[in-house]
Amino acid sequence: MAIQEPQGMEENDAEEAKPLMLKIAAILDEARSSYATHNRKLKELSLLRSKSPSPSHFFSAFSKTLTPLFDFHRRLASADRVVSFVSTFAAAADDEFLDHFLKFLLAAAAASNKTARYRACQIVSEIILRLPDDAEVSSDLWDEVIEWMMVRVRDKIPVVRTFAVRALSRFVNDSVNSDILDLFIEMLPLEQNADVRKMIVLSLPPSSATSQVIIDCTLDVNESVRKAAYCVLANKFPLQSLSIKFRTSILRRGLADRSVAVSKECFKLLRDEWLIKCCNGDPLELLKYLDVETYESVSESVMEALLKGGLMKLQNGASILQYISSNGNSTEGDLDHCPPRIQLMEAEAALYWRTVCKHLQSEAHAKGSDAAATTGTEAEVYAAEASDKNDLLEKILPATVGDYIELVRAHTNAGSNHRFACRQLLLLGSMFDFSDVSNRKAAGAFLRELMCKPPDQEDDNEGNIVVLGDGLSFGGDIEWAEAVASLARKVHAVPGEFEEVVLAIIEELAQPCRERTADYVQWMHSLSLTGLLLKYAKSLRFLQGKAIEPSELLQSLLLPGAKQSNLDVQRIAVRCLGLYGLLERKPSAELLKQLRVSYIKGTHSISIESCKALIDLVMWHGPQEIDKVLKLNIPCQMNNEKTTFCPVSFSDSEEDLDVETLDILYSGFENDDWASPLPSNENECVHAILGEGFAKILLLSDNYPSIPVSLHHVILSKLIYLYFSDVSEHLQRLKQCLSVFFELYPCLSANHKASITIFRVLLYSPLFWGIFHFHNAPKKCYNKKHMLQPSTFIFYLIHMKLRKSRLKVILNPINLAPNGEAPLSLRIRYINNSFDVDKKLREETSYLLVLSRTMVSVHIRLTCKTQMRCYFRLDCRVIASPSNHLFLKYNKNQVERLISLYKCLGNDLNENEIDTIVCHLELSILLIANSKNSTTFLICFADCVPYYHHYTNGLSQHPIYLNMGELYRTRRQMTIEAWLFVSFSAISSKSESSVCFHTSSTTPYTKSNFNSRSFHSKPLHLPPSPPAE
C-alpha cells in the first residue's frame, strides 16, 4: 500500500534519500537475522539519524524503507525481530521522530489493508510498552493513539484486535481513561477468538469491577485463557482482597481443571502466593480464609493438593493428642460442655487432622500393596515406608478407643457450634480397630446415644416447633448421616449386626408412632433413622427375625407416615418407601400405589421424592414388573404397538389409575408448575428428575425390552427440548447430565443412532410451536436462529461414530439402512413436499428453513441408483414450484447434480424396490397409480403425528391425501370393512388423476362418517421418467 509521506518533503530530495534508504535497509536486513545484533545496529541507525541533513529527511527515508513490512502478512520470527528492532529504536528516539512515526503508524492503522492494520497495531503496541515513564509525548497525540486503538479493538481481524488490546493495556490503569476498561469488560464475553480474550484478561487491572470478570474466565473453553486468568489472579490479587466465595471458586475450578497446565498454574497460585506469601506456610491459617464449614469439599481438595505436593510437614509433637490432656488445659468456655481434660477443636483443625490422617492411611495402604506386589530389596523398602506411615498415624490418633469416644462425645455435647468438628472426628472412626469386645461395647453405647438423640429444633415466630436441617437425612444433613453410618458399620461389622442394632432402636423410637400418639418431631426422628437403615442395608433378608419385621415396618411406619397430615413427615416417608422398594425382590402393590398417589396429589417437594422413588423402582425392577404388580388392565399387544404416551390429567384423576407408570411419569412434563426449582435447592424440580430418569432409561434401553422402540423418539424429542428450552435454563445440573447423555447415546448402539436418524424431523415438533397442535405457545419459539442450534446438534449426534464393540454389519442391497443418512435425506425431502406450495404459515416457513439448511449437511451416496431415483422424484416437484425457494436456495447444487445424473439411471422404481424401501426405512408407501404419463406414490411416516392444517373445505375440487401413519394408528379402532373401504376407495377411484387420502383427524373411520370428513388435499405428482438416451 502507499504510505503518505510528510508534507514537507520535496520531490528533488527523493534521489538524495536513496543512499540513506539503502543503508537503513541493510541495517534492517541484518537486524531480522538475530536479536543479538540489535544493540549494535541500534547504534548504527542512531548514527545515521544524527548525520542526516534534517530529521524530516531521515524520517522520509526510514518510512519508505519500512513500507514493505506493511505488506508482509506472514507471521515469521524474522518479521517479528524487525518489528522489535524498529519499536526499540522509536521508543529511544527523540520526541520529534516519535511523533512523526506514531502519526505514520496511525495512518496505516486506518488503512483498508488488513496487513497494514496488523503491522501498525503491532508496532504501536511495542512502542507503548517500551516507552519509559518519563517519555514526553503530546497529549493530543496520545489521545489520537488511544482513539484509533479503541477503534481497532473492534476490528474484524483477530490479530489486529489482539495488538490493539495490547497497546491499550498500559492506559487501562489510568482513571482518566476509564472508557478503555469499560470497553474491555464489554468485549470480553463477546469475543470469539481465544488469543484476544487472553490478551484482554492479561490487560485487566486489579479492582472490584474486574475480579468477577477474571474469575469467570476460569471457566473459559480455551486452556490458555484459563491459565492466563490464574496467572493474573496470582500476580494482581492478594488473598485478602478476594471474598471467601471468590477464593473457593478459584480453587474449586482450578484444582479440578481437566488441563494439567491449568491445574498446575492454580496450584502455583495456592502454594506461592496464598500459602507461603500470605499465610507464612501455615495450612491452618490458609484454611481460615476458606470457611471450611461452608466450603468443606474445596478445603479438603486444598489439603489433598498440599499433601500430595509435599508441603505439609508436621511440627514436633503436633497431633490430636494435644486436645486430650491430663492437666485440664481447656478454656473457660469449654468447661460447661466437656470434661476438663478435653480441649475442643476448631473447625479448621478438625478438617486438617482428618485429611492428614486419611492421607497417611492411604499412603500406608499404597506402599503396603506395592510391597506385596514386589520382592527383594524393593519390597523391603516399600514395607519400611508403609511402616513409617502407620507409625506416624498412630502418633497422631488418640491412644485408645476410649479417649477417641470421649473426645467425640465432648464435641457432640458442645452444641451445634461444634457439630462440624464432631463430624470430622466421627469420620476418623474408620481408622480404629474395634475387634476388641470392650472397645466395640463402648463405641456401641455411644452410637446408641447419637441415634436416640432427637433432631435439633427451634421455635418460629408463631411458637411452632421447626426441625432444623434438610428434613430428610438423619441428623438434618446427609453428611452427618453418612458419618454416623460409617462409624456404625465399622463398629458393627458382623453381617446383620448393623441392621439388628439399628432396628432395635427404631422399634423403641417408633412405638409412639405405631400407637398414633407421636408428634411430628418423633415421626421425623423415627423415619430419618429408618431411612439411614434402608440406605445402607444390603437386603431385607438381614432385617427378618429382628426387633421389627420388614412387613411390619412397612405397614406400621412407612405407609402411615406417607398419609400423615404434616408435609415434612410425608416427604421423608415417601423417601423411605423408595428405599424400601429397592430392597424388595418384588415390589409391593401398596407401596407402588402410595408412591403414585404422592406423585400426583402431593406438593412439589413430595412429588420430587415420589418421582425419584418411581424412577429408581422402574429402573431397578423394570416397568413391566412394576405394572404387573399393580395388575393394570392393559393388553400386551396394545402395549407393543404403543407410539405415544397416554396423557394423564392430574387434577381430575382418581387415586387408583389404570395407567402405566411410565405414562404417569411422562405426564409430569405437562405440569408447568413442576418446572420451577425448589427455593431450598435450585437444581431440584420434577422436570429435572424426569429428564435425568428418562435419559438413563434411554441409555440402558436394551435392559428394558418392554418399552416399545416407537417410544424412544418421543422420549428423545422431549430430552432435546429440555436441553435447548429456555424453561430449563436455570437447571444447570440437568443440562450437565443431558450433555453427558448425548455424548454417549449415539455411540452405544446402532439402534440408538437409528432412532435419531429415523425420527429426526419429528424432533423439531415440540420446538416449532404453531405446527403439530401447539397453537397457544409463545411466539419467541418461531425464532429461526433458535432452531438451527438443535438442528446442528442433532446432525452432530448422527455423525458420531459407534464404538468398535458395537459395530454390526448390516446387509442392505440398496444401502438405505435406517441409521444412515440416506433415509434422513428422503424424509426431509418428503416433508418439504408435503406443505402447501402456494401458502405457508409463518411457523411452517421457519420449519422448512431449518430443514432446508440442515439438508446441506446430509451426505448422500450418488453411486446408489435407487437413492438417486428417490431423490429425483421428490426434488422435481420442488423445482417446479416457485414458492419452494428455501429448499432450492440451500440445495441447488445438489439438486442440479441429481438431475444431470438421472438420465443414466434407466428404468423407474418398481414395486420390489418400493417394498425394499418400506422394509429398510420403516415407511409406508402407497402406490396409487402407475400410468404411462405419471407415477404417483406417497411416502408417509408410520408413527408420526399429523403434520398439516386443514386448508380446504370440500372434496370435489381437490384430490385427497390419505395419511397412512394416521390410519395405522387408528386401524385398531376400525372394522375390517371400514379399513378396506378406505384403502380401496382410492384404488377404485374413477378420477383420471391419482387420488391419495390424507387426514389429520383421529376419529375412527367408518362408512357413515367417511364421506362427511374434511380433508387437506395436496397431490404429489411426480414427473415421468425421461426417455433413455
TrEMBL record:
Could you tell me the keywords of this UniProt record?
A: Cell cycle, Cell division, Chromosome, DNA condensation, Mitosis
Gene Ontology BP terms? cell division; chromosome condensation
List localization entries: Chromosome
Domain Nuclear condensin complex subunit 3 C-terminal per the UniProt entry, residue ranges: 527-800
The primary location reported for this protein is nucleus
Q: Which GO terms describe its cellular component?
A: chromosome
Question: Is Cell cycle tagged as a keyword?
Answer: yes
Pfam families to which the protein is assigned, alphabetical: Cnd3
- Give the InterPro entries listed for this entry: ARM-like, ARM-type_fold, CND3, Cnd3_C
Family recorded in the similarity comment: Belongs to the CND3 (condensin subunit 3) family.
Q: What is this protein called?
A: Nuclear condensin complex subunit 3 C-terminal domain-containing protein
Q: Please give the organism.
A: Flemingia macrophylla
The lineage is: Eukaryota, Viridiplantae, Streptophyta, Embryophyta, Tracheophyta
